[in-house]
Amino acid sequence: MTMVIRQITLATILVACVSVTHGADTYTVDPVHSSISFMISHVGISNIHGRFNDFSGKITIDQADPAKSSFALSIPMESIDTNNVKRDEHLRAPDYFNAKQFPTMSFQSTSVAAVDGGFKVTGDLDMHGVSKPVSFTLKGGDKVVEFPKGTKRIGLVSTFSIRRSDFGVNAEPKALGDEIPIFIGIEAAKTEAAK
Question: Measured between alpha carbons, how far is 151 from 153 in angstroms, rounded to an integer?
Answer without folding.
Answer: 6
